[in-house]
Amino acid sequence: MNIFRLAGDMTHLFSVLVLLLKIHTIKSCAGISLKTQELYALVFASRYLDIFTNYISLYNTTMKLIFLGSSFSIVWYIRYHKIVRRTYDKEHDTFRHYILILPCLLLALVFHERLTFREVMWAFSLYLEAVAILPQLVLLQRTRNIDNLTGQYVFLLGAYRALYILNWIYRYFTEPHFIHWITWISGLVQTLLYADFFYYYFQSWKNNQKLHLPA
């Protein structure tokens, strides 16, 4: 564990807490893409297949349980909560997210570290996580109405991935044989997808204006 890994984990955790705060206190999921949340639920479900068979540490198991539980809880709230589901912007959240799943699975079958079910699913989760934010970004561009909590949620998600890249760089120089090119490439792609959002986020912060994305 190093400072970049810890900061990345905490930033990821804060992003989830911000979203849950929005849903629980305001009883609203306005501006939140159900498609992205479903993809994240699939990411964590396929990545943490070893949660009950491969114990690493209490911290590791706790974080896995938090991300699994929160991702499926968010999907449930948006789909079934009698108040929250009324605020879901189904009209604009039309990105066909299922078309991302098959290409990511095919990539995992071709490019993986070891040809085992668990390793293929691990690679699949990395590829899928890299593009899971796309429905959310498209929704924000279509509505152009971004409240503070939604903006902070997306910003924290992007910051988490950027911090993880710093973590990998640190480990590359401090740990022998630390080369996981699948992780590096998927993480870089995911961070680049946030570049446009980061630009407008910092512009709005600098000018003390409401965040808007171009159509």
TrEMBL record:
GO terms for cellular component: endoplasmic reticulum membrane. Belongs to the ERD2 family. The chain crosses the membrane at residues 55-78, 98-115, 121-141, 153-173, 179-202. Keywords: Endoplasmic reticulum, ER-Golgi transport, Membrane, Protein transport, Receptor, Signal, Transmembrane, Transmembrane helix, Transport. It is found in: Endoplasmic reticulum membrane. One of its GO terms (molecular function) is ER retention sequence binding. Residues 1-31 form the signal peptide. InterPro entries: ER_ret_rcpt. It holds the Pfam family ER_lumen_recept. It is a multi-pass membrane protein. PANTHER family: ER LUMEN PROTEIN RETAINING RECEPTOR. This is ER lumen protein-retaining receptor. One of its GO terms (biological process) is vesicle-mediated transport.
